Amino acid sequence: MKVRVLGCSGGIGGRNLLTTAFLVDDDVLVDAGTGVGDLGLDELLRIDHVFVSHSHLDHVVSIAFLVDTVGEQRGRPLVVHALPATIQILREHIFNWAIWPDFSAIPSRETPLLRFQPIEAGQTVELKGRGFRALPANHTVPAVGYGLIGPRATLAYTGDTTSCDALWRAINELPQLRYLVAETAFSDGERALASASRHLCPSMLAEELAHLKGRPELYVTHLKPGEADLIMAEVAQRAEDYFPRQLANGQLFEL
Question: What is residue 53's three-state secondary structure?
Answer without folding.
Answer: coil
